[in-house]
Amino acid sequence: MKERAINPYALWLSSIRGVGNLTIKTLLETASCAEEVYHMTDDEISMCLVDKLKRRGDATGKALSIYFAQERDPFEEAERLRQKGIGFVSIEDDCFPERLRGIPDCPYGIYYIRDLPPDDVPSVAIVGARNCSSYGREQARVFAEKLALNGISVVSGMARGVDGIAGRAAVNAGGRSYAVLGCGVDVVYPEENGELYDILKERGGLISENPPGTKPQTKLFPRRNRLISGLADLVLVIEARRRSGTVITVDSALEQGRDIFALPGRVSDALSDGCNFLISQGAGIACTPESVIEHFYGVNESGTDMFEQKRKERNLRREDLSGMEKVLFDVLGCGEIMEPDFLIGRMESILGKHIDVEEFTSCMTDLQMRGLAAEVGAGHYKGIG
Fold first, then answer.
1. How far, in whole angstroms, is CA 367 from its chain's centroid?
2. Structure confidence at residue 306 (pLDDT)
3. With bands split at pLDDT 50, 70 and 90, how would you rate the model's confidence at 242?
């Protein structure tokens, strides 16, 4: 997990049962930060909420919840979370995702395992039907793979169908893949994507605004969807019916000012109704992955597609490598920081044989000498080019 210091008071405030974004926002109109809320008296909390929340009974109940929560030790809670390998950032922190700060109903805080999508890297949310067709499955894989190869982060909801396929394809291509969950980050849902969950724990990221241990609930998924689009610069719809959960994500994306692209389909296919409708309403037409990639990178002065140029340059570098070096080069991808154990495991899975540390070190050293890999910190590596 990328180490970020946890603000104990923000974590404490975010985890109080029954106290949501609206209540926290109301408190912070009086207090300057979570730490001040923690030190407020019962009367101060009550006056703040009763004056500003419409329903006096609700305000009194929330005030009592906050007052009794002050008996908990924020620093102990932060340490327990850290020991579980779970991170937390709040809107009070500089490292809070910039994309989320400006969205309507921005979460006060989010939990994550391993990492969050970088602010300075393009990000695409790939969403679509759970019961997708063979056409949808293949296109989700192709788009996610090519976006990942071009250094674009892929965000999904890790649901069955399009979401899970896209998340897995991005990882397999050596790219960045992040899943926003409608439960706690320590809860695997759906169970059929348990393998993907485990992979994202090691390489990628798992994100939720719900406290750890929260079980999946129907009411949590529409709110989850606004974070999927919120963490992206563009939402790509692979397959969707006119009335579906995917459309909720699109509605959130439009409200947030995100760009929408949709994969066209046959007019006789119900699973393409939503996509074709979005296109008729002005969404970008995602005929190929390059059409989405060009949206971010455009074309160079000669008119050559930047993705195609980058792919050719990468393939030229790859041609001079030995078989094992090529596998390591492919597993490294571009830009993602990885640990040796993960890299060796991925290489063994691809090659179908055991790789000892000496073999790995020799391959990595050669890639570094060629300028195709770099060591980041102590014993972590990333691909270049």
1. 29
2. 52
3. confident
Burial class (CB in 10 A: 0-12, 13-18, 19+), 93: middle
Q: What does 125-194 look like in DSSP terms, one character per residue? A: EEE--TT--HHHHHHHHHHHHHHHHTT-EEEE---TTHHHHHHHHHHHTT--EEEE-SS-TTS--SGGGH
pLDDT digits (tens, 9 = 90+) for 40-86: 998 899 888 876 665 555 778 888 899 899 999 999 999 999 999 99
Bridge-partner residues for 366, per DSSP? none
Assigned CATH for 320-383? 1.10.10.10
Q: Is residue 235 helix, strand or coil?
A: strand
Token pair belonging to 381: 């590596």
* pLDDT tens-digit readout, 296-322: 887 544 444 554 565 566 666 777 788
* Architecture of the domain delimited by 123-297: 3-Layer(aba) Sandwich (3.40)
Q: Residue 291 pairs with which residues in a beta bridge?
A: none
Q: How far apart are CA 2 and CA 97, in angstroms?
A: 14
What is the rounded CA–CA span in Å between residue 188 and residue 201?
Answer: 11
CA distance 137 to 238: 9
CA distance 149 to 176: 9
Identify which of 187, 193, 13, 199 has the alpha carbon closest to the alpha carbon of residue 90: 13
